Amino acid sequence: MKWVALSGLCAALLVSLPAAAQKSAAEAIADYRASLQDGNPADLNAARGAELWRKARGPKNVSLEKCDLGKGPGVVAGAAAQLPRHFADVGAVMDVESRLVHCMVALQGFERDALVAKPYSGTAEKATDIEDLVAFIYDESRDVQVKVPQSHAKEKQAYERGKKIFFFRGGPYDFSCASCHSADGQRIRLQDLPNLTQKAPAQAAFASWPAYRVSQGAVRTMQWRLYDCFRQQRFPELKYLSQASVDLITFLGVNANGGTMAAPAIKR
Fold this sequence. Notes:
Elements: H1 2-7, H2 17-21, H3 25-37, H4 42-54, E1 85-87, E2 92-94, H5 96-106, H6 112-117, H7 129-139, H8 153-167, H9 177-181, E3 187-188, E4 191-192, H10 199-207, E5 211-213, E6 218-220, H11 222-232, H12 243-255, E7 265-267
Parallel strand pairs: 5-7
Antiparallel strand pairs: 1-2, 3-4, 5-6
């Protein structure tokens, strides 16, 4: 039990044998996550992201405080709960990360290619600016109801394309997203695989990303989550901020409508 001593955070799992016998693995993992939430390291990412949001940076030396995330310039509270959505200024549907990068380019003058070249931090690396900013933006939507819109024609088209991607089978294992996430009661080892075609699990899954991954010691964004899913399916690499990624997030978000945002969460 050396790992327990090292983490100092797993005491919630040390229960009596009779109690443990009455708990499923999923319930025990849920209790473990709950015990960590008050000390979620993602809070530090969000705090750094808040500073980055307000700091004048980039070739234009301006802040992101005029960035429009869908609720008006500078309004961050509740914005992530309504993304992806159509933005008239670009004529496209954008998720949180694609809209953030757009603002960093348009307002601050950063080079897009440089921003997207390395959006994710590596092992034992400092979080990227994008990871910190995303943590901040989502933290501002905590406890807000998910309302991903479908009023614009392009939003509906994005949803339909995302649905097709979700069920598309391919690769060396003939997998799809649905292979793991369209049936009840499936798991990999101790990890439950939520049925993302059903309302309650779809809401819980969408609302908990981005998340701090304990196993990686880093905040991982929704774009990263999809990238890693494609990797595990042995699909071609999912390009950061690609149309396919935004479409798939749109599909997942619409399925989660009515849920309550709980990100950044904490996961194994």
